[in-house]
Specification:
about 15% strand, seven-stranded parallel sheet, Rossmann fold, elongated, alpha/beta, 15 helices
């Protein structure tokens, strides 16, 4: 079984295409089914520890995988029962059921078991389950000590993560061949439990991958505060937000952080503070290296003409730029044109409400919505949430693994903006992804019930560990 970090993500159509390529190269549906079923059986064997296993088989190839798993488990001495919705409807699944050779119970009448395997419906489901089927599935899964879904928990839309039917939480989901969007996108991701991949030796070419731990070098003996990166935060009506972004920038590893803020606010002594004016901004940045400088604008900025003027100054500069919070509400197609004309990168960091206001409501896949937004804006788009997606203007996306639900508190987005600013200023590879990973890791280390201030401070430990 393969962990999900740094793995490609395939839609239902892309998965079918990968299987078709394998078949064209000399494999077969039956051979792929044998490989998948054997992988499921091995995972179940490890987890079951000799306990009785119940495998629920659907009428398609997902059910066929279940029959193969049952046969392999039985051959290795496991106590296995199989229940099915009906006769298989594909040639490969029919062959798999015949090879199983054991009894097949009626799904509606099946009893409980300590280990339950859901092999009813996997990739490609487009309609809700019958109410009776969803009810029995939910009862058996909830009664089990360990529940395992083959490819996806039944009742989930593969590409969007939408629940087509009520879906019970499972302990483990075994992604066949590759991750699917629903393994990562909410609400489906919350139902999948631990996700592991069973390798089917397929060509898994994709523009979409999961994030992995960044590789960020420690400062060398020749580094100084400017070579490590200068982060400039432009404050506004809510000074605490800009202060959080500034502290996060410093604790994420910036060599120098500067806050333009007119309000009195408690900040670390190491933070350089300046009163705002366009002239003061230009003077402070005069001679600073564009490759080692990033500006963060938006946290607590406000939405009036004064805020718009600050954003315009940032956009007119020759430096890398993070646009967050209030500043996102000031963007339009004219600003997108300016972003596309810039020679240095821009990162937008909207949460769902900001994204919908800027790009329109998401009606399908969050991955596709983020990809479209990046192409439209010319910026790297960090579509935040429990399933954060980083999308690039060239069409690539990177999806974060599940974030802590405790990040749903005020100020954590400001911390993320400052963290990404440091990654940009330090010329870190894939800076938006690195910032998202560090932010999530800081939350993981804190556990729960933390403040955004705590999150910013924990970045020091996270940065040191890289």
């Amino acid at each position: 079984m393969i962990r999900p970090e740094g793995q490609p993500i395939l839609t239902a159509a892309a998965m079918r295409a990968a299987e078709d390529r394998a078949i064209a190269a000399g494999s077969s549906v039956g051979a792929l089914m044998e490989r998948a079923g054997a992988g499921v059986a091995e995972a179940v064997r490890r987890l079951a520890s000799g306990a009785p296993v119940l495998i629920l088989c659907g009428p398609g190839n997902n059910g066929g995988d279940g029959y193969v798993a049952a046969r392999v488990l039985k051959a290795n001495g496991a106590e296995v029962r199989v229940a099915a919705l009906g006769e298989p409807k594909t040639e490969a699944a029919l062959a798999a059921r015949a090879a199983w050779g054991g009894a097949v119970e009626a799904f509606a009448e099946v009893g409980e078991a300590p280990i339950v395997v859901d092999a009813l419906f996997g990739t490609g489901l487009t309609r809700s389950l019958d109410d009776a089927v969803a009810s029995v599935l939910g009862e058996r899964v909830r009664a089990a000590r360990i529940s395992i879904a083959v490819d996806l928990p039944s009742g989930i839309a593969t590409d969007t993560g939408v629940e087509l039917s009520p879906v019970p939480d499972v302990s483990l989901t075994l992604a066949l061949g590759a991750l699917k969007p629903a393994h990562l996108l909410q609400p489906a991701a919350a139902r999948c439990g631990t996700v592991r991949i069973i390798d089917l030796a397929l060509d898994r070419s994709s523009r979409d991958w999961t994030m992995t731990k960044p590789a960020i070098a420690a400062p060398t003996a020749s580094d100084h505060k400017y070579s490590r990166g200068l982060v400039v935060v432009i404050g506004g009506e809510m000074p605490g937000a800009a202060a959080l972004a500034s502290e996060a920038a410093m604790r994420a590893g910036a060599g120098y952080a500067m806050l333009f803020e007119d309000h009195a606010v408690s900040t670390p002594h190491a933070l350089v503070r300046r009163a705002w004016s366009a002239d003061a901004f230009a003077t402070a940045l005069d001679g600073k290296r564009p490759d080692k400088t990033a500006i963060v604008v938006g946290p607590g900025l406000g939405k009036g003409d004064f805020a718009a003027a600050k954003l315009a100054v940032a956009l007119d500069s020759a430096y890398k730029l993070v646009i967050d919070g209030d500043a996102l509400r000031l963007l339009d197609e004219a600003v997108f044109a300016r972003i596309k004309a810039r020679s240095c990168p821009v990162v937008l960091t909207p949460h769902a409400g900001e994204f919908n206001a800027l790009f329109g409501a998401v009606s399908g896949s969050k991955i596709e919505a983020a990809r479209d937004a990046a192409a439209r804006s010319g910026a790297i788009v960090v579509f935040k949430g429990p399933d954060t997606v980083v999308a690039y203007p060239d069409g690539r996306t990177r999806v974060a693994l599940g974030a802590s639900s405790w990040l749903s508190t005020a100020g954590t987005g400001d911390v993320l903006a400052g963290t990404i600013g440091t990654m940009l200023a330090g010329d870190t590879p894939a800076p938006a992804e690195a910032g998202v990973w560090m932010h999530s890791e800081a939350a993981r280390r804190l556990g729960g019930a933390f403040l955004a201030d705590d999150l910013a401070r924990m970045l020091s430990a996270v940065r040191t560990s890289l």
